[in-house]
Structure to design on (280 residues):
């Protein structure tokens, strides 16, 4: 009965992770030095459906099809960032060029809006399920 | 005749069950709106309706082969509706078929249907209450 709540919550949690990753990418859009060396590489979350737990004796018909979502992995995008000409930059090579992170700020903003809309949809789902459960408790009144 | 457990009550119970089940499926679709290769699911309501009609035809009462048998109504089993992968999936690069706008719209619609069923159930009980209280004052 309450599995829907957990699913909506898993959606909220996954989208929040995605938003955190977008923040990290945006914050490091011009970071040229990292612990691993070289410019910052953008990260991206990989979503997957959650596996079903072992047979639940209280399982209702149809519940087996329900799937939550989880962040399975955070992948690093290894594509090369663009080279810009900036001879005064501390990381400039002999030709005065600097390798920048492979973060595209516009793409990240789009991803951010998409994540925040998906988050809101999950909040709505949670809210609606809560309303329905509350309404069901009105039956006996 | 059973006043409490008649076919109306069973229909309402079924409607509540199936609507709630569908709401959870739609929540699952919304949660997986960005999961690669996820295909949205839904309940086959038409099939469920047909199975209800079939069981209506067959289970109005248990067969009595002898006059001494007690009369009973067949136990209506849990409502069955097939879970189907939605056919009108949009093809995206990551293989995900969820259209979030439509999914949220279906969600709102299904919630309204559920509330209709709740209200009908509530009023049915209100009628029973009225009958009982009238009997108490007049009897």
């Amino acid at each position: 009965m309450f599995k829907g709540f957990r699913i909506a919550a898993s959606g909220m949690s996954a989208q929040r992770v995605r938003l955190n990753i977008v923040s990290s990418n945006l914050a490091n859009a011009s970071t040229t030095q990292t612990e691993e060396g070289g410019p910052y590489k953008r990260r991206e979350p990989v979503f997957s459906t959650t596996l079903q737990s072992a047979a639940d004796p209280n399982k209702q018909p149809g519940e087996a099809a329900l799937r939550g979502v989880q962040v399975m992995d955070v992948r690093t995008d290894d594509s090369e960032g663009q080279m810009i000409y900036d001879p005064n930059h501390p990381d400039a090579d002999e030709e005065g060029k600097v390798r920048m992170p492979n973060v595209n700020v516009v793409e990240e903003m789009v991803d951010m809006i998409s994540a925040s809309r998906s988050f809101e949809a999950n909040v709505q789902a949670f809210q609606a399920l809560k309303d329905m459960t509350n309404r069901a408790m009105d039956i006996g009144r | 005749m059973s006043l409490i457990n008649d076919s109306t009550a069973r229909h309402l119970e079924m409607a509540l069950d199936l609507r709630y089940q569908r709401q959870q499926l739609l929540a699952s679709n919304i949660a997986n709106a960005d999961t690669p290769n996820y295909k949205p699911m839904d309940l086959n309501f038409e099939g469920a309706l047909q199975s209800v009609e079939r069981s209506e035809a067959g289970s109005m009462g248990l067969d009595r082969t002898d006059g001494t048998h007690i009369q009973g109504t067949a136990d209506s089993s849990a409502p069955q509706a097939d879970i189907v992968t939605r056919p009108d999936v949009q093809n995206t690069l990551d293989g995900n078929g969820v259209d979030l706008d439509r999914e949220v719209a279906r969600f709102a619609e299904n919630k309204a249907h559920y509330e209709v069923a709740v209200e009908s159930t509530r009023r049915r009980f209100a009628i029973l209450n009225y009958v009982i209280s009238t009997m108490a004052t007049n009897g």
